[in-house]
Amino acid sequence: MAHVVVDNLTKxxxxxxxxxxxAVDRASLEVNDxxxxxxxGPSGCGKSTTLRMIAGLDDVSEGTIxxxxxxINGVGPGDRDMAMVFQxxxxxxxMTTFENMAFGLRLRKISRAEIEQRVRETAGMLELNDCxxxxxxxxxxxxxxxxxxxxxxxxxxxxxxxDEPLSNLDAQMRAQMRREISRLHTKxxxxxxxxxxxxxxxxxxxxxxxxxxSGAIQQVAEPMTVYRQPANMFVAGFxxxxxxxxxxxxxxxxxxxxIFREQPPSGSAGMGFAVQLERQKTGNLPGWEGRKVVLGLxxxxxxxxxxxxxxxxxxxxxxxxxEAMGSEAHLYANSGAHSFVARSRGTERIRSGQKISFxxxxxxxxxxxxxxxxxxx
Length: 377
Fold this sequence. Notes:
This protein is an alpha+beta fold. It has nine helices and 20 strands. The strands form four sheets. It has a six-stranded mixed sheet, sandwiched between helices. It has a five-stranded antiparallel sheet with strand order 13-12-11-14-20. A five-stranded antiparallel sheet has the order 15-19-16-17-18, with no helix packed on it. β1 (4-14) and β2 (20-31) form a beta hairpin. α2 packs across α3 and α2 (97-107) runs parallel beside α4 (141-153).
């Protein structure tokens, strides 16, 4: 196992015209011993570059990488005691499964008997015993990915690095491999750093997740903390499918209580809505009365009802699209002033074109500063 500390890590590339391109911008991160940490973010955010610097495949422009208290910036990739699983499997096509898994051990002059024991033990763990004599072309996509994972496991490294290993698999196989990698982490109790753009992988696999944008780490926390208490609007909009709804408006006082009053975009047909704030949140907004804010609500916190909702608890809107997902449905609605998405139970019969009331669960509301986009509460 390994304790990894990344301190102010920066990577600057030279562009085609000699310009400086910052791929990673002063990223700091700590991966605890035995932890499964997921780096997640959109394409081009710097997550794979961060992983490659930790692996020693890319040079560090600034900052340090430490393993168990030792700075490894100047240590070569082969001496870092890490194993990396790539997106494209990187298997030798002329070698069998056994030979692919054993190749790295042979380079390290491991004895034949130990190679045999490690490969067969790992193959049993990954259900590859029947595939040891097959070459990659004779394997399914999921089997090839398991071979790539097995090749990393047999090395018994301090740290496992995964660079979007499941992105080439179909949805069902991705779900299966997510479970298998999570199960392996539990069984091996190893430190794992996993890169993905898929929030489902991040939320379901990570002990903690680190969300990146434009080379900078936005938030590091447990998955449900990131989901329920996002640090800023980017995190709130990136994590969650469908993403969090944002409503711009102003907090005003009315009859001794604080109200969020929506400010419709210019040119919209609607008048906007007004909802009363929960009392426990009111005390967390000192000095914000009369100020502009952004209200954030998850789709599951907007409840549809064919009956009228209290006027201070929601809005009336027309359902434009219904996405049936089986046990639930996503309702894309328009109030005239704003479009938003809500979740409903799959058993509720709501049709496109229907005008209904939507109730807001303001106990779940998040508020953001419209200028900095940082969370207020």
